[in-house]
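queue> holo job accepted (uridine-5'-diphosphate-glucuronic acid)
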Amino acid sequence: MTIPYPNHPAVPAFAEVEPSSGAARPRLAFLGTGYLGATYAICFAELGYEVLGFDVDEAKIAKLAAGQVPFHEAGLDELLRTNLAAGRLRFTTSYTEVADFADVHFICVGTPQRGDGMGADLSYVETSVTNLARHLTRRVLIVGKSTVPVGTAEWIEQLVAKHTDPELGIEVAWSPEFLQEGFAVEDVLRPNRIVVGVKSEWANGMLYAAHKGVFDLAATEDREVPLVVTDFATAELVKVAANAFLATKISFINAMAEVCEVAGGDVTQLARAIGYDPRIGNRFLQAGVGFGGGCLPKDIRAFQARAQELGAGEALRFLHEVDLINQRRRSKVLQLAAELLDRRSGPAGPDLSGTRIAVLGAAFKPNSDDVRDAPSLAVAAALAKAGADVHVYDPQGMENARVAQPALHYESSMAEAVTGAELVCVLTEWADFRNADPQALGELVAAKRVIDGRNCLDALLWARAGWEYRGMGRPAPAV
Ligand code: UGA
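queue> job finished
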C-alpha cells in the first residue's frame, strides 16, 4: 500500500508506515509546552490524535493538566479542556513516559538569543533530544519544529546516533511552524503550507500520517494545504527566511516613514497606495514603533550570526539595517515626547523629569499577553529612564509586563492610566485603544497630547476633540 499526499499528485508515493506503538494513527508527543508546543499539542488532539505534551517545568505541566493555558491565545482554553476531557490529551514531565508513548516526537523547546552574542542558544534542544534519545526503545521519528540555525537537524541526527541503539532505526526530520500569536489555533488547524525536511520515505510517510488530520480537515472544507517536501537545510531556512522577509517588509515601511517625516509625506497613504500593487501587497506594511516579540527580532539576529559562520555574512548584512531601522522607531517616540512636552534633548536624550505619561499597550502586538522584546514596553522603560512618571495599561499583558519592567506603574484600566497624564502614548493597537473616545479621555488627562505609535487612531477625530496628535511618519492633522 502507498500513501499519496492528497492533492499533491507530483509528490512520490510513500512507503507504508506502521507506527511502532501499534496504534492506527501515530501517537504524537510535543516536547516543550511553551507557546509553540502547547498550541500544537492541543490542536493535534483536536484533530483526533492521541497526544502527550512534555515539559521539564512542573508548574506549567500541572497547569495544562488542570485545563489552564499558561498564556493568552484565543480559543485555546476551550480546546484544551475539551481534549483533556476526551482523554486524547495528557501532559507529563517524565522522559520515560514520553519515550514509551509516542511514534513521532516534535521538538518545540525555546531557542532564545544567546546571552553572549546574536546566535541562537541551542542548549534546550540539546537537553531535550539527548534525554529523549536515551529513553527510546523502539523506532520513532524525531521532528524538529523550533526555529534553529541551519545545520541543526544534521547535528541532532548525530546526537540521536550517539545516544540510541542504531538497530532501532530512529530517524530525524524537520518541519518548521509559522504560527502567529493571536491566530495560532487557526494556523495549526488550517496552515497556509506544510514544509517537511526528510531523508527517507519512511520519515516522509510518518510525517504524512502525523499530518493526515490537517489534510483531512482541509478536504472536508474543500481547501488544499500546499506541501513542500525538501531537504533538512531548506526546511530549516524556510522559517528564518520567512521571518527575515516579514521583518524587512516592516522595516521598509518604517524607513519610508522616516523619509515621510522629513519630506512632509504621509506613510499611511503611501503604504495604502503601494499595497494595491499585488506584487507588493498591503499586509505587514503598517508603519509604527516596529516589530517585537519572541521571534522576529531574535530570528533576524540568529540568521545573521549563522550566515556569518557559514561565510555568507555579506548576503544578510541588510538585516542589520532592518534591525537598526526597527530600533530607531522606538527612539522616535522619545523624540516626539520631548517635542510635545517642550523638553530639550541633551546628548543622553531628553529630560522628561516631572512629567506624567500614560503608555497604552505593553504586549508586543494586540490579542497577545506576550511582552518579549515588546516595542511598547521598551519605550515605556525608556520614557521612565528619561525621568517621566510612566503609567502603563494593557488589556492582557500586565502580569508579564510587571515581571519584565517592575519599576513602572501599572494601572488596571485605560481610564486610570490616562488620568492626570500630560501625554498619552498608544503603543499597541488593541481594539479598546483604537476605539477609545477622545472626548471622554480628554476629560481625564492633564493635557491633551497623544502619540499614536501604531498609526491606529483616527487622527482627525482626535485633533477635532482638541488633542495635539503625532503619528509615526504622518503629519499632524490640520483641523
Ligand atoms: C511571527 C511570524 O509572523 C509568524 O509567521 C512566525 O511563525 C512567528 O513570528 C514565529 O517565528 O514563531 P508573531 O511573532 O506572532 O509571528 O508576530 P507578527 O504578527 O509577525 O508581528 C511581529 C511584530 O511586528 C509585532 O510587534 C507587530 O506589531 C509588528 N508589525 C507587524 C508591525 O510593526 N507592522 C506590521 O505591518 C505588522
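queue> The radius of gyration is 24 Å.
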